[in-house]
Design brief:
Number of helices: 25
Distance between the termini: 71 Å
Strand order of the largest sheet: 2-1-5-4-3
Helix content: over 70%
Structural class: alpha+beta
Shape: flat
Radius of gyration: 43 Å
Largest sheet: 5 strands, antiparallel
Length: 780
């Protein structure tokens, strides 16, 4: 597309004439984009990471207010309101809702004012304050009368319906739902129409009119476009499934619960996915498919435990209890019943805390409402006083202006008479002040000179003044104590290098050249020469004095300090550090050698023994000792003295165990990422790995079975790492736990996992898998 010549000239002229305005406009565009990104991040993370959602929305609000971006402010305030409502901070939530409404009132946006008054009403319904909910419902009904927008009338009637549904007045809720329905058709917004039909379905469900509830839920689903994967449609499928469950149609119950699960797995929050797993498991149980039911309930339990969702864990354990009781597995049923009671008590405690918060919020809101009414009355009274006061002030101002005019006229006449007299007085005073200032400045200058002379003559450091040719113009008397030369002898020297050890002449010249180039002060150390030809360490600081007119170096001020004692102390510290490091390495080397001797002794004992059980025990013990020895071997090979590269250690350990069994039927596969741990952490981790890998070789592939053993080490997040020892062998017994086995190996693993504060997860599907989560920052 070609731009006309005149338009191009106008655009270029504006860019030249107003570059600052264009740059500011571009910066605002970037800030608006940043605000929109932050708000999107806050909305997406609200279900998974509330702290991130809050920080993102707060930052978006701060930037929006700074650039006066209204849409960004409203979105950020809405996100923050949602956050505080989920946290039970109802007063902050209420304050944010009123701020949003205040913005729309300033913009005179009736449609959005109604929407936010609806949200405010639903908030009061949540905290069970029906009086305030009704009050604001009446207000938004009056406000909606000013609008011809059908969507606005849908929102008002739908909010009334929700109000009566919350009060269990189902007939009135159905009435307002049907009043909202024609407006939703007229608005042509599928979501509004679907929400209205869903509310009617909920009202009929409460009245136990299941056929009508099913009909309205079906219509609500049909309103939405095909292929919709929103969370709303998954809720409709769940409610339809509940209708069929109540009506004992278990096949359709399973069908719609599976449809809801697919949508929630695609884009739903995690807690809804866990809820759908539980619903599907229950549906399978009702159909008699117990394995499928148990599979989905276990998935629901695992997901609910991950997110710590107590209100999901209680029904899941209750369902598991019912299933176990039905199957006469009373031990499992008792365990599930205990867990269910634990979470039931936690839910009751949380419900009580929530009720307390709601009561406190209601009490505070009521008090605020009463205080606002009193303030409004006081404002009316103050307005009357202010009006009367303004009339009085107006009369006083007229009188004051007349009097001021008379005073100004008299003052103008008197000013002319005083002007000449004041000019003479001011001239005399100016001369007196200038004389006093000059006398005072001379006194300060003399005192400053005396002070500088005293400092220079009594300081321990040697202070010099040099010209640009490096000839000394002045040197402090302390030079005689430092160098052995008098001040006059040093001033007669041709170059300052006469006081520098010849080995450091090049270094000093380089630093001087660098100082002249950069025109900045420099500091360096070198060895100086005394009059008796002895050397000592000094630190020199050279500061250039620049000519203010040409900005070139005019003079140099140098300060030289004796640092011989400091350098001697540093050398002693360095030597001590080297000796300690050597001693530690020698200790680790000797420990490694002692472990090697111990392994050899056990090997000799094993060769001399005919007892196979003793031979196996000695072999296991050798591997454990070799595991500990390998830590010291790795530590001896590395440059550090307290940490080892655990990835190398784990790789070598796996190869040693594999070679000790020498089983060609079993393939060892490794996937190991770099990781460093301290020696106190490496020893228990190595012993745990030794037990788990050895057990996999011993028990995972009995007879002639072949298979794989995987050893993986990878980072999880921040300082957390994960080790997995997995195989595709015969797997673990169905009732296997680390606490149920009493072997030495399992006891060692249990004790060491607890010692390093790690987390051990065991699974036995398609083989066995042991997963250990640990932190590399632990300091044992």
């Amino acid at each position: 597309m070609k731009i006309p010549g005149l338009l191009l000239i106008i655009v270029l002229s504006s860019m030249i004439a107003f570059p600052a305005e264009i740059r500011e406009s571009n910066e605002n565009i970037y800030r608006i984009l940043a605000v929109d990104s932050l708000n999107r991040l806050a909305e997406m993370s609200m279900a998974s990471d509330t702290a991130l959602a809050k920080s993102s929305a707060s930052r978006a609000l701060e930037i929006s207010v700074h650039i006066n971006y209204i849409a960004g402010q409203i979105t950020a305030l809405s996100c923050l309101a949602t956050f505080y409502q989920t946290q039970g901070e109802y007063l902050k939530t209420l304050d944010l809702y009123f701020k949003i409404i205040e913005i729309y009132e300033k913009e005179k946006d009736v449609k959005n004012m109604v929407i936010n008054y609806c949200r405010l009403t639903q908030f009061f319904l949540k905290i069970k304050d029906f009086d305030l909910a009704e009050k604001y419902l009446v207000m938004l009904t009056r406000l909606a009368k000013k609008s011809d927008d059908p969507a606005t009338h849908v929102n008002v009637n739908l909010t009334w319906a929700k109000y009566y549904l919350a009060k269990k007045e189902n007939d009135l809720a159905i009435r307002f739902g049907f009043l909202a329905l024609p407006y939703s058709y007229k608005a042509g917004i599928p979501d509004l129409e679907s929400s209205t039909l869903r509310l009617l379905g909920d009202a009929f469900m409460q009245k136990k009119m299941y056929a009508k509830a099913e009909y309205n839920y079906m219509l609500a689903i049909a309103c939405l476009p095909p292929g919709t994967y929103a969370v709303g449609i998954s809720i409709l499928y769940t409610r339809l499934a509940h209708v069929y469950q109540v009506r004992n149609n278990n096949f359709l119950n399973l069908k719609y619960n599976l449809m809801a699960l697919r949508i929630r797995e695609y884009n739903g929050p995690v807690h809804l996915v866990a809820s759908s797993y539980m619903n599907v498991g229950e549906a399978y149980w009702l159909l008699g498919r117990k394995d499928s039911a148990r599979y989905y309930l276990q998935k629901s339990l695992k997901l609910a435990e991950q997110i710590g969702k107590i209100d999901l864990l209680e029904p899941i354990y209750r369902q598991l209890f019912e299933f176990a009781k039905a199957e006469k597995k009373y031990a499992d049923a008792l365990q599930y019943y205990i867990s269910r009671n634990e979470y039931f008590n936690k839910m009751s405690l949380e419900a009580n805390n929530a009720d307390i918060l709601i009561l406190e919020a209601n009490r505070t809101i009521r008090a605020t409402e009463a205080q606002n009414e009193l303030l409004n009355q006081e404002i009316v009274i103050q307005d009357l006083h202010i009006r009367n006061r303004r009339i009085q002030i107006f009369l006083f101002e007229i009188v004051f202006i007349i009097m001021l005019a008379l005073i100004l006229i008299v003052e103008a006449v008197a000013r002319k008479n005083r002007k000449r007299k004041n000019e003479l007085i001011e001239l005399n005073e100016r001369l007196s002040r200038e004389i006093s200032i000059r006398i005072e400045a001379e006194g300060r200058l003399n005192r400053s000179k005396e002070l500088h002379r005293v400092l220079a003559e009594n300081t321990v450091d040697v202070i010099s003044l040099m010209d640009i040719g490096l000839r000394r113009l002045y040197i402090s008397p302390s030079c005689e104590k430092l160098y052995g030369y008098t001040a006059q002898e040093i001033l007669r020297m041709h170059t300052p290098l006469e006081l520098v050890d010849p080995a450091y002449h090049i270094t000093v010249n380089q630093r001087l050249l660098e100082m002249f180039r950069s025109k900045n002060s420099t500091r360096f150390t070198y060895k100086a020469l005394r009059k008796d030809c002895s050397t000592f360490w000094v630190e020199a600081s050279i500061n250039p004095i620049l000519d203010p007119l040409i900005h070139e170096v005019k003079n140099l001020i140098t300060v030289v300090r004796d640092i011989s004692e400091h350098m001697k102390h540093e050398e002693e510290l360095s030597e001590n550090s080297r000796q300690k490091e050597y001693l530690l390495r020698e200790i680790h080397n000797r420990v490694k050698n002692n472990f090697a001797i111990l392994i050899s002794l056990m090997n000799m004992q094993r060769d001399q023994s005919a007892d196979s059980e003793l031979s196996r025990s000695l072999t296991d013990l050798q591997l454990r000792v070799r595991t500990m020895s390998l830590v010291h071997e790795q530590l001896y090979q590395t440059q550090e003295i307290n940490t080892i590269p655990f990835n190398n250690y784990l790789h070598h350990l796996a190869l040693i165990i594999s070679s000790s069994f020498d089983n060609s039927r079993i393939r060892l596969q490794t996937e190991i990422y770099p990781c460093k741990v301290n020696i106190e952490m490496a020893l228990p981790l190595g012993l745990i790995m030794n037990e788990l890998i050895t057990n996999a070789y011993k028990y995972a592939f009995p007879g002639d079975k072949t298979g794989n053993i995987w050893v993986r080490l990878r980072p999880e997040y921040e300082d957390r790492f994960c080790i997995e020892i997995c195989d595709d062998g015969i797997g673990l017994p169905q009732d296997f736990t680390m606490h149920s086995t009493q072997t030495m190996g399992s006891q060692i693993v249990g004790i060491l996992v607890e010692q390093i504060e790690a987390k051990l997860e065991v699974s036995g599907n398609n083989g066995a898998c042991f997963r250990i989560l640990f932190s590399t920052l632990q300091d044992k």
